[in-house]
Amino acid sequence: MKKRRIVILGGGESGVGTALLAMAKDFDVFVSDKGKIKEKYKNVLINNAIEWEDEKHSEDKILNADIIMKSPGIPDKAPLVKQIREKGITIVSEIEFASKFTNATLVAITGSNGKTTTATLAHHILQQELDVGLAGNIGDSFAKQILENDFENYVLEISSFQLDDIVDFKPKIAVITNITPDHLDRYDYNFDNYIASKFRVTMNQTKDDYLIYDADDEVIVNYLKNNPVQATLLPFSLVKAIENGAYLDKENNIKITIDNTHIIMPTNNLTLEGKHNIKNAMAASTVAHLLKIRKQTIRESLENFQGVEHRLENVLKINKVQYINDSKATNVNATYFALESMSSPTVWIVGGVDKGNNYEELFQFVNEKVKAIICLGADNEKLMSTFGNMVDVIVETQFMGEAVKIAYKMAETGDSVLLSPACASFDLFENYEDRGRQFKDAVRKL
């Protein structure tokens, strides 16, 4: 019998993970990357005798596939992807392909912001009592973990790009943290397309599955009104009492109710600060409650969770000035939460690749809290014209080291220096992690 041929577009973490799993499941595997494949991934492919190419796409080797796994970074508009679709070859994401080879309970977390923190926190709680992996947009690829560990449960952080290429993927528990305009460049600048993409996380769910979502998010609530889903709904809210789900009561306790069982958790000992993190804690705790984790374990886990690198991460205090790394804020809404949580005058480092940003929702915080702005991008024109009249000092630079030195000169005792770019990082940095690490290095060199 002829082996099924899978072609994998993109030789990064998800691509190489998929190649290894497909090889183990007796597929004929070929990996093709238009860019350069990193050495560490090349070595894995070579050591496992998997055929690959980089810096080109050979159409004759790609268009004869039975199935194609494309990296989430490759847009549907790419000419090669159009050709593949015209030929009627099925395109799937790593999440879709890998989920076929596990019977694990899947928790899928998506949203414009908060998904990394929520996924990491949910995993942190669950691993106290369950056999659980953390994958998706985080850490080792889902496919590779299924091959090497096959955990009984997985928490998956999933982007809209990964959801665009699912067919049968069906999580037991889905979480939508929030939906705000992001990545609109990939969705024809149509917010409705992006919203629909996020809701694909629940499209195969039945009434025996759960959808946990932010009931304070008008976009989510309106979508559910007009597009009813099959899953059992468990909303969470900071402002209204919820019968089935989670809410914040008058005493600042999180109350979770599922099938008439209750948990009450005080928020005064949460290690994570800010209203948005109470929401992330609600979502993660609801997941844990559904999976029968003991109340005591949930409480203790919330109180000892250390947070996520590059997400409002306190780096150092120098001359009584706190330096904060929020490089993971790649959109306006994430920066909104960062500025909202600032309690001291702030020198704000912002900028990068603008994804069609509307900065209006930041104006109130900029007026209240920001004393100076440093624009760090290849093109800062929009930022300069948007914020130029709001602060006394606004400067621009293309170098992280220089941005941090300027901030050091501007900041006074009791101030904060916040890197919260509200933009993607690809103009000056490899990714948001690289940007965050360069910021931390520059701060440590002061």
Automatic annotation (TrEMBL):
Residues 310-423 form the Mur ligase C-terminal domain. Gene3D superfamilies: Mur ligase, C-terminal domain, Mur-like, catalytic domain, NAD(P)-binding Rossmann-like Domain. Keywords: ATP-binding, Cell cycle, Cell division, Cell shape, Cell wall biogenesis/degradation, Cytoplasm, Ligase, Nucleotide-binding, Peptidoglycan synthesis. The keyword Transferase does not apply. It is found in: Cytoplasm. Signal peptide: none annotated. InterPro entries: Mur-like_cat_sf, Mur_ligase_C, Mur_ligase_C_dom_sf, Mur_ligase_cen, MurD. It is an enzyme of class 6 (ligase). The keyword Nucleotide-binding applies. Pfam families: Mur_ligase_C (PF02875), Mur_ligase_M (PF08245), MurD_N (PF21377). Belongs to the MurCDEF family. This is UDP-N-acetylmuramoylalanine--D-glutamate ligase. It comes from Algibacter miyuki. The lineage of its organism: Bacteria, Pseudomonadati, Bacteroidota, Flavobacteriia, Flavobacteriales.
